[in-house]
Each structure stands twice: as C-alpha cells, then as structure tokens.
User: Which sequence fits this backbone?
C-alpha cells in the first residue's frame, strides 16, 4: 500500500485530537509527525518522541539547509516540520500532521502530495456557542477565536476531504478509509 502524508486541520474543539490519537493507537501503519522545536523539554518529554529538541543554531542551520516543510515562531521559540523525518518515515508508514490551516497549506506548497483533511463540527453555530459559553475569554480574544474558527472553515475548498465529526467512530472510519485508499 502507498504511504501518504496527511494533514488534519479544523477548528479548536472539533475533536481532531481524539480522532488522531485513536487512529495512531489502532494502526501500526500510521504515525504522527514529530516536530522540531527550540524550546526546552518539559518534564516527561522525550527527545525524538514528543519533539526533536534543537538549539537555535541547529534550527537556523536546518532552515538554511531547507529541511523544514514549514516552520513558525510561537512564544519566542521556533517550531517546524522536518522534511528529513517525513521522507524517511514515509518509506515504511503513513504520517499524520495535526496542524493548523495556514501550516497545512504551507506544507502543500512544498510537498504537493500532501492529503488535506478538514474536520468540521456538525454545527458551526453550536461550536461558537460553546466557545462563548466557556466564558474563559475576554471579549477581544473571543472575537479573535471566533474569526479564526470561521477563517479555518472558509478554507474548505482548498481541502481534499471535508469530514463532519457528527459521530466520532464514523469520522474515524472516514479518515481510515483515506489511508486504505477506499475513500
Ligand atoms: P508547545 O510548546 O505547547 O508544545 O507548542 C506550542 C505551539 O507550537 C502550539 O500551538 C503547537 O501547535 C505549535 N507547533 C508545534 N509543532 C509545530 C510545527 O511543527 N509547526 C508549527 N508551525 N507549529 C507547531
């Protein structure tokens, strides 16, 4: 079977983490990508499992060498998807990148075989209501989150598959059928 690189995106709270975790647990032939970062490991984090922890110098060198399918800066540290890891792993397994829409579309530019999967909520209004109902956000950051949610869903035409997470097992089966080449 052909191994594929798949990006799974979708708004926060849509359940994509659960879908990814379940598939990784169930299938020997699918792994999650391991990103590189310049931030320090947290307690319990293992190099090569949670992240590849690099010095800033090493990270910058690998940018120069074109070893990132995409990279970005968060909270003053660099994070990136390593091309070498992806290419090596694809020789024996398929890979899931759980990545935001911007990151996924950036990877697609340099790795056109990337399969883009968007996980969507059964009701956008319901997801928005939940976000508002949490009350954990001040008005400004709530506005940013709602705009981001809408922006992500608006990119759906650029995606290869649009899967509504109405029923978790059905959504998992749909993603699995992409790996099996039956969807
Ligand atoms: P943390 O330091 O909490 O593990 O991650 C911080 C942020 O970095 C999160 O928003 C996470 O999604 C993002 N991140 C992790 N890996 C990558 C990556 O490979 N590329 C990009 N662009 N962001 C990443």
Assistant:
């Amino acid at each position: 079977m052909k191994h594929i690189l798949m990006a799974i995106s979708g708004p926060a709270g849509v359940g994509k983490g659960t879908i990814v975790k379940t598939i990784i647990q169930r299938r020997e032939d699918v792994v999650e990508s391991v990103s590189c970062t310049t931030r320090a490991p947290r307690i319990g984090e293992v190099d090569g499992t949670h992240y590849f922890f690099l010095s800033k110098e090493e990270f910058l060198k690998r940018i120069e060498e074109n070893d990132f399918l995409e990279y970005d800066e968060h909270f003053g540290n660099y994070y990136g998807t390593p091309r070498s890891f992806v290419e090596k792993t694809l020789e024996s397994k398929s890979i899931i990148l759980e990545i935001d829409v911007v990151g996924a579309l950036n990877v697609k530019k340099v790795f056109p075989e990337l399969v883009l999967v968007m996980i969507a909520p059964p009701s956008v209004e319901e997801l928005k209501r939940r976000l508002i109902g949490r009350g954990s956000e001040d008005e400004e950051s709530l506005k940013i989150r709602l705009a981001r949610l809408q922006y992500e869903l608006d990119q759906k035409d650029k995606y290869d598959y649009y899967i509504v997470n109405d029923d978790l097992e059905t959504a998992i089966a749909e993603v699995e059928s992409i790996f099996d080449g039956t969807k």
The first helix runs from residue 16 to 26. The mean pLDDT is 93. The beta strands are 5-9, 30-32, 35-37, 51-53, 68-74, 77-82, 94-98, 115-120, 161-164.
